[in-house]
Amino acid sequence: MITYTVKQLADLAGVTRRTLHYYDQIDLLKPTEVGENGYRRYVKEDMLTLQQILFYREIGLSLADIHDLLNQADFDVIDALESHRMALEAQADRLVDLIRTVDLTIKHLKGEVEMSPKDFFEAFDDETQKKYEEEAMQRWDPQLVKASNDRWRSYSREKQKAIMEESGQIYMDIVANMDAGYDSPAVQASVANWHENLRNFYEPTVEILRGLGQMYEADARFHDKFASLHTDLPGFLNRAIAVYCEKLES
Length: 250
Prior knowledge:
Shape: elongated
Order of helices and strands: HHEEHHHHHHHHHHH
Structural class: mainly alpha
Distance between the termini: 72 Å
């Protein structure tokens, strides 16, 4: 039976030896053998378990959740791998869509093609957009997430499409009025429309609105998306939303 030392397994998996020691301490990945000298030895089954851990970490599960999953009585490695494959295929499809949108936007900025508001956000489908908004909600009130999902699923596909197209148009309107300033009536009216559009997902508090503005500038995913419309748009949106929130509070 072939066995592997901590260093050998760490090198194979691209993790640190300290990581494997920690997984042992929290009973997430115990070595099959521990010699009298305290040296850990791992076998093929341990490698498969580590692979599962890394897959689940890749999709964002906590170590505690992974521990619970791996220790379920009905846990099946083949079923788990098939599930991972489906998730990876979906992720690959998403990346292809994002690359296509990036290429189209580059051509638009070079003056080679025209893009509609819908084209700018084609790769950011409703599920992805909702996922981003949920990340913000989870910072303040996790209970909003379920209500948001239920509300969204209650809409027809046509209404969902209309909501997302309206969202794209709002950002285009803001870009068109950037020269007037982030506190101008035109821009503030568009921010009010943005606020109203968000109500299709959930009822956002002022704190959530302000936090979304900050995410639009600081989060790389949002920043890059909005910067493709105008290089200054991420920061401009944050400031415009901040002004809007100050007015709501007053």
